[in-house]
Specification:
By secondary structure, this protein is an alpha/beta fold. 47% of the residues lie in helices and 13% in strands. The chain is built from 9 helices and 7 strands; from the N terminus they run αβαβαβαβαβαβαααβ. α7 packs across α8. The protein is globular, with a radius of gyration of 18 Å. It starts with a helix and ends in a 7-residue tail after the last strand. This is SDR family oxidoreductase.
């Protein structure tokens, strides 16, 4: 196989993308579809799922709260029915969580952030791994962490804690599953353009008492390339990690962030 050909995933891959109806998840789902993959997504947002299915009817979908085990079980029933197996799991679910000083963070918000961002990684891997072991198509797990999974993040402690934990979970799974030919990596997006980042910037501006424009400029000054990344930048990395070119890439936390120097 040529180098150029190896950069494309094998056509017909069976792919599950969690939180796949919008944002990074939808960009990843669409990118896989463009490579000839069969794609199933799940999401908690019914209206976003409806829009995705309307725009991209080739993608099948389930409505689910990734922090609820019975919902995850139902997703895998749909995966078996629609895909007949699984070659790639993109564990993308995540919420921003609360912004504030640690003494001001509500315990319920802390626990919800842990449940959505971290527990979901376990619930989906727990069900996906037996299916991935049966795959002969370079099976892999891609866990979506964050640049906050390698840097401290003041006033965002619940989010940062989960994103660091995802990297530890990924590295442990890579060791555990390597002998079975299943690769496990994490993508660490940086400051991603879009509505979600706009909300994060606004919340952090309010928490620290500065204007939104000043906070946006502060974020850009922390990035070596002085620009945010796009959804497609992150999706492209997911495609690479699922391709034959990445067959010996496992246990890696790969930043797609323009080199965020600090948070």
């Amino acid at each position: 196989m040529s180098i150029t050909a190896s950069l494309q995933p094998k056509p017909g891959l069976r792919v599950l993308v969690t939180a796949g109806a919008s944002g990074i998840g939808a960009a990843v789902a669409r990118a896989f579809l463009e490579t000839g993959a069969r794609v199933h997504v799940c999401d908690i947002d019914r209206s976003a799922l409806d829009r995705l299915i309307t725009e991209t009817p080739e993608i099948s979908a389930s409505m689910a709260d990734a922090a609820v085990p019975r919902d995850v079980e139902a997703v895998f029933e749909d995966v078996r029915a629609n895909l007949g197996g699984l070659d790639v799991l993109v564990n993308n679910v995540g919420i921003a969580g609360p912004t504030g000083a640690v003494e001001d963070i509500d315990r319920a918000e802390w626990e919800r952030t842990i449940a959505v961002n971290l527990n979901s990684q376990f619930y989906f891997a727990h069900r996906a791994v037996p299916m991935l072991r049966q795959s002969s198509a370079h099976p892999c797990v891609i866990a979506m962490s964050s640049v906050a999974g390698r840097l401290g993040y003041a006033f965002r402690t619940p989010y940062a804690a989960t994103k660091w934990a995802i990297v530890g979970f990924m590295k442990s799974l890579a060791i555990e599953l390597g002998p079975h030919g299943v690769r496990v990596n994490a993508i660490l997006p940086g400051v991603v353009e879009g509505e979600r980042m706009n909300g994060v910037i606004a919340a952090r501006a309010a928490a620290t008492g500065v204007t939104v424009d000043a906070m946006r400029d502060e974020y850009l000054q922390k990035i070596s390339l002085r620009r945010m990344v796009t959804l497609d930048d992150v999706a492209a990395m997911a495609i690479f990690l699922s391709s034959p070119a990445a067959r010996n890439v496992t246990g890696q936390a790969i930043s797609v962030d323009g080199n965020v120097e600090y948070l």
